[in-house]
Write a structure and sequence with these properties.
Blueprint lengths: L2 H23 L3 H21 L3 H4 L10 E6 L17 E6 L8 H10 L4 E7 L3 H8 L6 H7 L10 H19 L1 H5 L4 E8 L10 E7 L5 H6 L10 E2 L2
Parallel strand pairs: 1-2, 1-3, 3-4, 5-6
Antiparallel strand pairs: 4-5
Bound molecules: zinc ion (ZN).
Length: 237
């Protein structure tokens, strides 16, 4: 066999082998899990080697975030779409349906202990938790049902309104908890929807504001002092 033929054969065998590996990676849960774990290890390794002590120094022993963000656990909703460098700045609480109600302790920690001046309640389009509340969830596991029980869509007729109503109702809980801080302007509670599907018309991935301190008409939001001068804010219309 010539050197050239050997080389072609070797390439062919390698290609077949590679296809097998790629196929098997998507084949079983354990292979998919291992593949993703490998990605996490690789990405973290790259992260560690591209940083030095100076990058961590401001955060070694304390944090001073500015935002307590209550977000859905949905994998499509991620902090980098809200902040170019969320490290040390966003204190995030994540659960199904972006609830204050089911995670009061964590929200209290952000607002009362870390004293973030902004509490953001962030819903998102195509939210499985909100859709479950709309269609009924009696057949789900008790642990999941218990967490969906605290979502209030206030008899919304469509998904868009259900998302807004859920954010509004979570904000109502926060308003009762933190009334003094809000009245003294030490805390602002802002509601919004991360629009994966572009149903609000500002573009896929847009953050659309739907509430400020319990005010939820477009006029009230745009005229609120917090939004003054923020021309690029996308306000529900
Ligand atoms: Zn969700």
């Amino acid at each position: 066999m010539t050197w050239k033929k050997s080389c072609i054969l070797l390439c062919f065998i390698t290609l077949i082998g590679l296809q097998g590996v790629l196929y098997s990676k998507e084949n079983t849960p354990s292979e998919r899990a291992k593949d993703k774990l490998q990605t996490i290890i690789f990405v973290n390794d790259e992260f560690v080697s591209s940083r030095n002590l100076a990058d961590f120094k401001p955060f070694l022993e304390s944090q001073s975030p500015v935002v307590t963000a209550v977000m859905c656990s949905d994998s499509r909703v991620q902090p980098p779409s809200l902040h170019d460098n969320p490290k040390g700045r966003l204190f995030t609480i994540r659960n199904i349906g972006n609830q204050v109600a089911s995670n009061e302790g964590s929200v209290d920690y952000g607002v009362l202990m870390l004293k973030t001046p902004l509490l953001l309640i962030l819903g998102h389009t195509d939210c499985g938790a909100v859709k479950a509340v709309m269609k009924g969830y009696a057949d789900l596991k008790p642990s999941i049902k218990a967490e969906l029980d605290t979502i209030n869509i206030d008899h919304a007729k469509d998904e868009k309104q259900a998302l807004i109503n859920n954010v509004n109702s979570q904000i109502e809980i926060a308003l009762k908890k933190y009334r003094d801080l809000i009245d003294s302007k030490d805390l602002f509670v802002v509601g919004g929807i991360y629009d994966i599907q572009n149903i609000f018309g500002y573009g896929n991935g847009a953050l659309v504001f739907t509430n400020i301190n319990g005010l939820h008409s477009p006029d009230q939001i745009s005229k609120h002092s917090l939004f003054e001068g923020l021309e690029k804010a996308k306000i529900i219309r």
